[in-house]
Design brief:
The protein is of the alpha+beta class. The protein has one helix spanning 2-17; strands spanning 58-62, 65-69. Strand 1 and strand 2 (65-69) form a beta hairpin. The model has no long low-confidence stretch (mean pLDDT 93). Bound molecules: zinc ion.
Length: 79
């Protein structure tokens, strides 16, 4: 839980520092793109090797949304 909390805070700080992510229509007030999309490790990287383990990134649909993940590093465990 502590590691998750630290990771979420770190991701939020980086997202603010990079001024958000421009995927389709989000823009800064001056029209420029955000820079957070360059930090994504799996989003939009289907078929590319995971930076951590080299397994190809997979894409599935979750609640109608495209969702990318590493099938080795991000295993769903039963609660
Ligand atoms: Zn991995």
């Amino acid at each position: 839980m502590r590691a998750l909390h630290r990771g979420v805070r770190q991701a939020l700080r980086l997202g603010i520092a990079r001024q958000g992510s421009t995927l389709r229509d989000y823009r800064l007030p001056n029209g420029a793109s955000g820079g957070m999309q360059d930090e994504f490790k799996v989003y939009g990287r289907g078929g590319e090797p995971c930076e951590r383990c080299g397994t190809p990134i997979d894409k599935i649909r979750v609640a109608g949304r495209g969702t990318w993940y590493c099938p080795r590093c991000q295993v769903l465990r039963a609660a």
